[in-house]
Amino acid sequence: MLPRIAITCGEPAGIGPELLGALAAANLSAQLVLIGDRDLLCQRNQAHWPAYSAETAAPVSIWHVPLGAPSVPGQLDPANAQFVLDVLDAAIAGCMRGEFEAMVTAPLQKSVINEGVGGKFFYGHTEYLAEHTNTSRVVMMLTGASLRVALATTHLPLREIPAAITAESLTETLTILQHDLKHHFGIAQPRILVAGLNPHAGESGHLGREEIEVIEPTLDKLRAQGMDLIGPLPADTLFTPRQLARGDAVLAMYHDQGLPVLKFASFGEGINVTLGLPIIRTSVDHGTALDLAGTGKADAGSLIAATELAIELAHKKRAVNHRT
After folding, report:
1. Which residues bind substrate (predicted)?
2. Is there a single domain that holds both residue 189 and residue 130?
3. pLDDT for 250-300, tens place per residue?
4. Is residue 155 a known part of a binding site?
5. Is 8 annotated as a binding residue?
6. Which CATH number is 188's domain given?
7. Most buried residue, 16, 54, 160, 215, by CB count within 10 Å?
8. What span, in angstroms and rounded, lies between the C-alpha atoms of 145 and 126?
């Protein structure tokens, strides 16, 4: 059987719903289950897909989750904040049950969720997936243009980043990164380039001591356990062809240290992968693009690439399970 992949529609006022239509037309080798409001998806794409059923093998179907309020392209409405989370919950639950072999997420709008849903602050897909799969630590990695960039910290204010980079957190992050590069991406002996936190990687302590006190000792301990790690390297020269040719992936210390380079090189074709989860999850490398919603001009390249990778990882997971 073809792998069954859950595709969330994301923010209904953004480009997600129409990107799902372009994805459905891409004729990928998988059963695609589009999760969102049936009328929204069909009307936005001028198409009709059957209702999802676990017993059928339709190439494209819809798992209906009702909107909280009518949605207008480009106009955010906090009344649909819970809808976005309900869509995400449906995909997570289906993956955890084994009903779906992977999930792919269209972009959501964090601000509207935090305005529309009371209680705990919503940081983003990555953190939400970790919490709802009972995973203590996950790693956010983006791939594109032959680059793989993982993050030691994700959606944090800059002032909180140094305290979040500890020996324990770095050890867990690098362990997950090495494991998934081996088992999901087929790299037998991953070599990981590790960025420093401070300019010039601290310049021997003159520009910060995190490299000396935390990063270097942690890398030394992990090297002694067999990991192939290079760094900490100054981030301003790490992303040069000569340096990148030395490794299979980069670990950046924070979101805007690593991702601007990757998005410059591959925007619209990049893929966000959450490592360390018990399920397979990929996503796009862009946001909701409210200015393009409803215009028909949105590029589905990143969503198609993310789905193709999810299918590939699902097949690899099948092969591993078959061997064991």
Report:
1. 125-126, 263, 272, 281
2. no
3. 999 999 999 999 989 888 788 999 999 999 999 998 999 999 999 999 999
4. yes
5. no
6. 3.40.718.10
7. 16
8. 22
